[in-house]
Amino acid sequence: MITLHQILVEIKDYFEMMNPDLKFPQYYALKINPSQIHKSKLEHKHAIFVLGQELANAMKDIEFTGSARISARMKELAERTVKEIERDME
By the 8 A CB rule, do 53 and 78 touch? Predict the structure, then answer.
């Protein structure tokens, strides 16, 4: 899970380098990064889905074909993961 999170962060970093105007506000609001191994698996999973959604949104500017569907699915998975985190905290 952490490896996938790291790979997505590297893709995000590349996108930001190529387009400095590109922002990832939802991901940054989570305040989690792959080096935080003390965070739960669910928190990393949620970060992956949020970042995946924002990456897919960024890709819409480059390629229209499947990016919107990917973004919508990542959003759905992120919302589902939030519910899992909330259940675990109870």
Answer: yes
Token pair of 60 as six digits: 């819409």
Residue 5 structure tokens: 């999170």
Map out the domains of the chain as residue ranges: 2-89
- At 51, list the tokens: 């970042």
pTM above 0.85, yes or no: no
Q: Nearest Cα to 30, choosing from 14, 46, 54? A: 46
pLDDT at 33: 95
Q: Are 74 and 88 a contacting pair, CB within 8 Å? A: no
Q: What is the CATH number of domain 2-89?
A: 1.20.1270.110
